[in-house]
Amino acid sequence: MGQFQLYFQLGIQHILDLDGFDHILFVVALCAIYVLRDWKKIIILVTAFTVGHSITLALATLQLVKVNAEWVEFLIPVTIGITALSNIFKPKSSTGRGIQINYLFAIFFGLIHGLGFSNYLRSLLGKESSIFEPLLAFNLGLEVGQLAIVVIFMVTSSILVGIIGINRRDWALVISSLVLGMSIMMMLDTKFW
């Protein structure tokens, strides 16, 4: 197996690992207000998140940025909670503002999430002579993993909202409330306190 394929698979596995489900929760919170026909917006949203965390992942892996790991572990569930809370308080008749703020959340909060990956990736890279290819492969794997989460979530949403007839707003509120509750538990569970 080549180096690129190895790091690509590690990126996918890292996202889909249920032991570290914070990333899954964030992606679900970002997508909760969308429907399947918004697929282009969702891909842009998820890619914006990847760009955000790729920037800080690269900077932290190269040790150009150093941040207290306890702060990062606390801030990650905070980003999830803020995103979910934004969905809950989004006006019923949206003017698009709720969707636009999700793009800001995706890129800005992606910066924070990237810091959370850096120790993991740095330990994987060890003494690699060049980190460009592994970093690119890992980030592409993360993107593919995120898109897999999006597909599963959006298909489930489409079945429940479009076919079974659950109210779209109620679905978004339930999902966002569950994600908010889980993020609060994650915040309380960090070593920050």
Automatic annotation (TrEMBL):
InterPro entries: Put_HupE_UreJ (IPR032809). It holds the Pfam family HupE_UreJ_2. The chain crosses the membrane at residues 20-36, 43-65, 71-89, 101-121, 144-164, 171-188. Coiled coil: none annotated. Keywords: Membrane, Transmembrane, Transmembrane helix. This is HupE/UreJ family protein.
